[in-house]
Amino acid sequence: MNISIVTVGKLKEKYLKQGIEEYLKRLSSYAKVEVIEVPDEKAPEILSDTEMEQVKQKEGERILAKLSPDAYVIALAIQGKMKSSEELADSLDKLATYGKSKIAFVIGGSLGLSNEVLKRSNEQLSFSKMTFPHQLMRLILVEQIYRAFRIIRGEPYHK
Q1: What pLDDT digit, counting tens, does each position of 81-106 carry?
Q2: CA 41 – CA 55 distance, rounded (Å)
Q3: For residue 43, what are the contacts with CB-CB under 8 A and spacing of at least 6?
Q4: Of 93, 98, 126, 135, which is the most exposed, with the fewest CB atoms less than 10 Å away?
Q5: In the chain, what are the domain boundaries?
Q6: For helices 134-152 and 85-97, what crossing angle results, to 10°?
Q7: How many H helices and E strands in the chain?
Q8: What does the alpha-carbon distance between residue 74 and residue 77 come to, in Å, rounded to a whole number?
Q9: Low-confidence ranges of the chain (pLDDT < 70)
């Protein structure tokens, strides 16, 4: 299985980089996983609604350019469906069973995802009703993907 994580912005925090690198290393025996960063759109702290949409639009165009036409796209969005770790594992297992070997998870910037990216997605996934920094979400996502593969293989993993 080929998994890409398309995400907005550069990761700066060393502790997040180390955590993500650790899970990517662990994942290497289960799947090919790559993180694709697209630049975030520079914008002032306070934006009008129109300006917010323009930022999401520009970031969305960069995201869409990185998505393979045959990828099954899972957008991380607060309004998405919440799943347990076991349900995520089951979803990934079913995708593999039905020939969907390219999966792309998409993490938007601080303002979220454009409507075009949401329309391109095959499903929307929410990790919580809470808002998380999009940089931290990368670490949470790679850990959950790792956990899903452990569950699929019936291997032990702490609860």
Answers
A1: 999 999 999 999 999 999 899 999 99
A2: 6
A3: 51, 55
A4: 98
A5: 2-152
A6: 70
A7: 5, 5
A8: 9
A9: 158-159
Distance CA 107, CA 75 (A): 7
Q: Is 132 annotated as a binding residue?
A: yes
Binding site annotation covers 105? Answer: no
Residue 102: strand, helix, or coil? strand
What is the model's pTM?
A: 0.94
Question: Could you tell me whether strands 72-82 and 123-126 are parallel, antiparallel, or unpaired per DSSP bridges?
Answer: parallel
Amino acid at 84: S
Q: How far apart are CA 32 and CA 111, in angstroms?
A: 29
Is position 129 annotated in a ligand binding site? yes
- DSSP for 116-128, written as a single string: HHHHH-SEEEES-
Q: How many CB atoms lie within 10 A of CB 134?
A: 19
130 labelled binding-site residue:
yes
Q: Is 128 annotated as a binding residue?
A: yes
**Rounded CA gap, 132 and 153, in Å?**
29
- Exposed, middle or buried: residue 114 (CB in 10 Å: 0-12, 13-18, 19+)? buried
Can you name the CATH fold of 2-152?
Alpha/beta knot (3.40.1280)
Q: Which two tokens stand for residue 76?
A: 């991380």
